[in-house]
Design brief:
- The strands form 2 sheets. A 5-stranded mixed beta sheet has the order 3-2-1-4-7, with helices on one face. The protein has a two-stranded antiparallel sheet with strand order 5-6.
- Strand 5 and strand 6 form a beta hairpin.
- Helix 3 runs parallel beside helix 4.
- With 181 residues, the chain is an alpha/beta fold.
- It is built from 4 helices and 7 strands.
- The longest helix is centred in the first third of the chain and has 20 residues.
- Helix content is 32%, strand content 23%.
Amino acid sequence: MRRAKKLKINHHSEFELDLAPLLAVMVKLVPVLLVSSAFVQMMVIETELPQVVNEAIQRQDKDNLPTNIALDVDAKDGFRIVVTEKGQEKVEEVPLKDGAFDLPALHQKLVEVKKLHPEIFKLELNPDAKVPYKEIVKIMDEVRQAHDSSVKFPVFDTKQGKNVDTPYMFPEIIFSNMMEG
């Protein structure tokens, strides 16, 4: 009978770990991560608002069933204002005028919406991918504040215990389709 050969294993031997393939992968991934991070940027434009408006925005954030105002911008159809209140949607449209956005008509419609919902200062902006950046900036300028200095919106000041007037309509603008591309 043949004897089984006893394997001799040395548990104290040392070996070198080859990290070259791992380093090669990391060297290739770092530039890819740096390049991709340049495409995703989040910009915040800080504006100084009256304390009363900031408090109203905070109250709106805490409200469980808030009224939501959204503005859809389509390069072919124009504007679509969607007011969602207590689960019901009300839609108003502002079509293009001579192939361009009708910003004065949009402003007038938003003044009417703001008069109906004076405690709402947040607007969700949903521009189409084909809308140029300069048009988006013009739209944001239209929705922030009333152009007519005689138009004021009441907002409740908790410190004074009464309503005060403000020209701000929707100073907090949120891009609702920011991560879509």
